[in-house]
Design a protein that fits this description.
By secondary structure, this protein is α+β, with helices and mostly antiparallel strands. It has a domain at 40-120 and 234-399: Jelly Rolls. It has nine helices and 16 strands. The strands form five sheets. A six-stranded antiparallel β-sheet has the order 3-14-11-16-9-4, covered by helices on one side. Strands 10-15-12-13 form a four-stranded antiparallel β-sheet, with helices on one face. It has a two-stranded antiparallel ribbon with strand order 1-2. A hairpin with a 4-residue loop joins strand 5 (220-221) and strand 6 (226-227). It starts with a helix and ends with a strand. The protein binds 2-oxoglutaric acid (AKG) and fe (ii) ion. Fe (ii) ion (FE2) binds next to loops. Residues 292, 294, 302, 307, 319, 321, 326, 328, 344, 361, 363, 395, 397 line the site of 2-oxoglutaric acid (AKG). This is Fe2OG dioxygenase domain-containing protein. Residues 1-11 have a biased composition (Basic residues). Its cofactor is Fe(2+). InterPro entries: Alkb, AlkB-like, AlkB-like_sf, Oxoglu/Fe-dep_dioxygenase_dom.
């Protein structure tokens, strides 16, 4: 719709006022430092200040004071030798980065080949999103056994059409208590989801964009922030176990002693030395028991939180990014520690160990048009996934619940 000159003037004025309000630090006073950064990165006008975002892909491009915070380390093993899924040895794959102010955090710049990433994306969408794994859609929809992606695929290739009964996924009759199923959507500024009587039945291509999360292994209960241990454990896909085990094993012994206290003082509560070691490497190699796949559309975010539901917090948490680039915030034990921000590009892998397991983190922003070219190819069996991932980010994260 064309705006009249007057409407344009009003819109411009409103945009200016809102930009001025955002730029005024006085409006931030009710916010803690974590929230201030979330606001910075969520802002569309004015655009975020990206100047201090850590970039582990090109260390020399970081601002000098950011550069001083980064420590490059060599991994104990080539990940590819620990697990063939990663492919041939590549020197760069033994590199990882630590941040002086965040003890326990290990960032491994994309160790995956394009093919390996495509396999993971395909599995996250087609296979691991299927029942009996739980997804946010289960609250309101009777998801078919073959899963919502399969239905979308059949709509795409014309084997199911709007006149077919199965085209619209049925709604659940009762109205379950809204269970915070907007785990990925930041509902801090939005009303809670409406009751199911107003939840629409949607064509598969729209419903697939509402998929926000799927749980693997122990099924997680978002409302109580506990695992449904009594329901037992659904299988953890072998591939997820193998790659996360290889990643954690490669981090064995990684750590640092912070000596550079003049230019970059460590966070006051940070210990001077930390190293990651699996407490029982021979008896029990790292075994992920629970996982979450987060599916982000371009305007989705994940608010500040700590993943602290595991009975044993000693195990590493492995988090793999796929698709468009995210801004990831990593703070301290309260929201009062100013977080660092980093780019997480497709394939980038974050391992949270030790102290980092207790730290607030979140994803305030997904950056448009940042999907790598190799995920946008037009082979016939990739096209449907390409059109999804072009406008999405997927995050696969796993943790060990018991030692
Ligand atoms: O999407 C991400 O990178 C982080 C996801 C996360 O923190 C979580 O699922 O607990
Ligand atoms: Fe998390």
């Amino acid at each position: 719709m064309e705006l009249s000159a007057r409407q344009r003037k009003i819109r411009d004025k409103q945009q200016q006022a809102s930009a001025a309000a955002k730029a005024d630090p006085a409006t931030y006073t009710t916010h803690n430092p974590f929230r201030t950064q979330e606001r910075n990165f969520k802002s569309r006008a004015p655009p975020p200040d990206f100047s201090r975002v850590f970039d582990f892909n090109d260390i020399e491009r970081n601002a000098p004071d950011v550069r001083k915070e980064i420590v490059e380390v060599e991994l104990a093993h080539d990940i590819g030798q620990l697990c063939s899924f990663f492919g041939q040895e590549d020197r760069s794959r033994r590199k990882a980065y630590l941040v002086k102010s965040v003890p326990g955090l290990v960032v491994i710049p994309n160790p995956f080949t394009p093919d390996a990433q495509r396999t993971l994306i395909r599995e996250c969408l087609c296979t691991w999103s299927r029942p009996p794994n739980t997804s946010n859609l289960d609250t309101h929809y009777k998801i078919p056994t073959q899963g919502i992606w399969n239905l979308f695929e059949r709509e795409w290739n014309g084997t199911v059409s709007p006149t077919d009964n199965e085209y619209l996924v049925g709604l659940k009759a009762h109205n379950p208590v809204p269970n915070g199923n907007g785990y990925v959507d930041d509902f801090t500024s939005k009303p809670p989801p409406p009751p199911s009587s107003t939840i629409p039945q949607l064509p598969p291509h729209q419903l697939i964009r509402k998929l926000r999360w799927v749980t693997l292994g122990y099924q997680y209960h978002w409302t109580t922030k506990t695992y449904h241990l009594e329901k037992g454990q659904l299988p953890m896909p072998d591939l997820v176990r193998d790659i996360s085990r290889a990643i954690v094993t490669s981090c064995e012994g990684v750590g640092m002693t912070v000596t550079d206290t003049v230019d970059a003082p460590p966070h006051p509560s940070a210990p001077k030395t930390w190293h990651y070691t699996n407490p029982h490497p021979e008896k029990a190699p790292y075994t992920p028991q629970a996982g979450v796949i987060n599916y982000y559309q371009m305007r989705d975010s994940l608010m500040a939180h700590v993943d602290k539901s595991e009975a044993w917090m000693g195990g590493a948490l492995v988090s793999i990014s796929l698709g468009n680039t995210a801004i990831f915030l990593m703070g301290g034990k309260t929201r009062d520690t100013p977080p660092i921000a980093m780019y997480l590009r497709s394939g980038d892998t974050v391992v949270m160990t030790g102290e980092a397991r207790d730290c607030f983190h979140g994803v305030p922003r997904i950056l448009e048009d940042t999907c790598p070219e190799y995920l946008l190819t037009d082979e016939s069996d990739w096209q449907i996934i390409r059109d999804y991932i072009r406008h999405s980010r997927i995050n696969l994260n796993v943790r060990q619940v018991f030692p």
